[in-house]
Design brief:
Shape: globular
Strand order of the largest sheet: 3-2-1-4-5-7-6
Radius of gyration: 16 Å
Oligomer: single chain
Helix content: 25-40%
Largest sheet: 7 strands, parallel
Number of helices: 9
Length: about 210
């Protein structure tokens, strides 16, 4: 049984904040791996300004090199677009692994808009990863009106595999203010570095 953290996102582009946050969560939760689930298309984000999927996938693989972070095109392969469906498919394919959903505090404000978000919370524990300036907003988020009843102590982080979902934990991680939005503003054509590469990208996971 592996202990696996799941971090979904557009990775538009992947950056050092994703890496640092993932490695810090790996240490705090005693994870064997973190899987980055690169979304083919986030239903809550506009298509305008979204780089091609293969460029985002390549940027994630470049950023994750030489670590226990595994970059996955699972959603593109399985045809899922919503997190609740992706997790169900992952649990069906890897029934003996233990998954925990990793989510930045900056995304909690929209969590109540996610498809079947309460069912999602009942499927896997959730770790909220601190983002500078978002702590108060995360705790005041609409979804937290329900989720706050299932908050676990950060002192018990290593024991998350013993929890029954719903279970949520706030992880205080080293601050990193890297922003994909700012990176795109500084380099709008960043994706050309990846789309111009003619290379075969093998599937991440094997049976």
């Amino acid at each position: 049984m592996r202990r696996i953290g799941l971090l979904g996102g557009s990775f538009n582009p992947a950056h050092r904040g994703h890496r640092r946050m993932s490695l810090a969560a790996m240490a705090a939760l005693g994870l064997d791996e973190v899987w980055w689930l690169v979304s083919p298309g986030n239903p809550l984000k506009p298509a305008e300004g979204m780089a091609p999927f293969l460029a985002r996938l390549a940027s994630a693989r470049a950023m994750a090199r030489f670590s226990r972070i595994k970059v996955s095109d699972f959603e593109a392969q399985s045809g899922t677009r919503y997190t609740v469906d992706t997790i169900a498919a992952l649990q069906q394919r890897w029934p003996h692994e233990r998954f925990i959903w990793l989510m930045g505090e900056d995304t909690v404000a929209q969590f109540h808009q996610w498809k079947d978000w309460r069912r999602l919370a009942r499927m896997v524990p959730i770790a909220l990863l601190s983002r500078p300036g978002y702590d108060d907003d995360a705790r005041a988020a609409r979804a937290m009106g329900w989720l706050r009843h299932f908050v676990r102590s950060s002192a018990m982080a290593w024991h998350w595999t013993e929890w029954s979902a719903p279970a949520i934990i706030f992880l205080r991680l080293p601050p990193d203010r890297t922003s994909a939005t700012r990176l795109r503003a500084l380099d709008p054509d960043w994706h050309r570095r990846f789309t111009s590469r003619k290379r075969r990208m093998p599937s991440t996971h094997k049976e």
